[in-house]
What does this fold into?
Amino acid sequence: MIKQYRLSKELSQEELAEEIGISWRQLQRIEHNEENTRISTFKKIVKILNVPDEEIIKFIKK
It folds into this structure.
């Protein structure tokens, strides 16, 4: 989900990671569900990408 929204905003991993204050490698692991993320980081991601609430709920339920 995060990757699709990032690409729709035409942001690279590096750009998004810089905006939220994490490394691009950490963002890559988050996008591939290889790493759990802090709520504060997740909130920054969904705010920047304008992810709808319904999508957030679907993502969390997985």
Q: What stands out?
A: The chain has a mean pLDDT of 91. The chain has five helices and no strands. The two ends are 11 Å apart (CA to CA). Residues 34 and 58 are 18 Å apart (CA to CA).
